Amino acid sequence: MADAGLHVEEILRPLVSAPPGRPFVVAQLGQSLDGRIATPTGESRWINKDAALDHVHRLRAAVDAVVVGVGTAMADDPLLNVRRVAGRNPARVVIDPKGRLELPRKCLDGNDTARRLLVHAASMGAPDGVEEVVVAPAADGKVDPRAVVAALGARGLHKLLIEGGARTVSEFVAAGAVDRLHVLVAPMILGSGKTGLALPPIERLSQALRPATRVFVLHDGDVLFDCDLRSSR
C-alpha cells in the first residue's frame, strides 16, 4: 500500500503510457466503506475529500474525453473541466440515448475550446453548443458501451474517462469496455442509500472479477483502489 501523495506519476502511468491510437478506458467511482455513493435522499457531496477530487481532475487532464450519462448530466450539472490541477480540458461527452437532456447544461456551455458531443441511439440534430451527435446502437434504451468507445475513437478520442454515474460506469464494466477501474473509498459508513457498481448477478465466486489491484492511501484519508480489469478477463 502506497501513499498516493508521493505516487501521482505511478498512479497515472498506465493511462499516460497507453499506446497511442488505441482505446484506453478508465472508469472512476467514489463511495463509502459500505459501497454507497449517495444517501437515500440522493445527497452525495461530498463523500470523498479533496485529494480524491484532485485525483479525478488529474484523470480529466490526462484523457481525450470525459464521459457521463444523461442522468448525471441532469442531476449534477457538472462542468467536467480541469480546475483543481494544471492541464487542458478534455472533450465532454454525454450519453443520452433518447435525447432527453434538457439544455442548457454547464458541460455543454461554450466557454472554452473543448469539444462537446452527445451520444444518441438515433440520428438527431445537434443542439447549440454541441459539436456533433454520435449515433450508437442501443437495446432496451441502453447504448452499447463498446460501440461508444469505438465511435469516439474514430473521432480521435482514444483515452476516455467514464466518470459517472454509477449506472453508466456499471454498464461499461459489465460490457468489458473498461481497462482500469479507480474506486475511491472514503472512511465513512452510510448504512443505507444508493449503491455503486451493479453488475449482472453471478452464481459462483469463480465468475467474479478478480482484477490485479494497486492500493494508494490519499493524504486526507480516502483510499484509491486501481483495478486492472484487463487482468480479470
Lay out the secondary structure.
Elements: E1 2-3, H1 8-16, E2 24-32, E3 36-38, H2 50-62, E4 65-69, H3 70-76, E5 91-95, E6 116-120, E7 132-135, E8 138-139, E9 142-143, H4 145-153, E10 159-164, H5 166-174, E11 180-186, E12 194-195, E13 212-217, E14 223-228
Parallel strand pairs: 1-13, 2-10, 2-11, 4-5, 4-10, 5-6, 6-7
Antiparallel strand pairs: 3-12, 8-9, 11-14, 13-14
Helix pairs in contact: 1-2
Q: How many E-type strands?
A: 14
What would CATH call the architecture? 3-Layer(aba) Sandwich
Main beta sheet strand tally, sense and closure: 10 strands, mixed
Based on Cα principal axes, name the global outline. Answer: globular
Polypeptide structure, described:
The chain has 233 residues and is α/β, with parallel strands linked by helices. It has one domain: Dihydrofolate Reductase, subunit A, CATH 3.40.430. 20% of the residues lie in helices and 27% in strands. It contains five helices and 14 strands. The strands form three sheets. The protein has a ten-stranded mixed sheet, with helices on both faces. Strands 3-12 form a two-stranded antiparallel ribbon. It has a two-stranded antiparallel sheet with strand order 8-9. Helix 1 (8-16) runs parallel beside helix 2 (50-62). The mean pLDDT is 92.
Short description:
By secondary structure, the chain is an alpha/beta fold. 20% of the residues lie in helices and 27% in strands. The longest helix is centred in the N-terminal third of the chain and has 13 residues.
Entry keywords:
Dihydrofolate Reductase, subunit A, 20% helix, 10-stranded mixed β-sheet, single chain, alpha/beta, two-stranded antiparallel ribbon, 233 residues
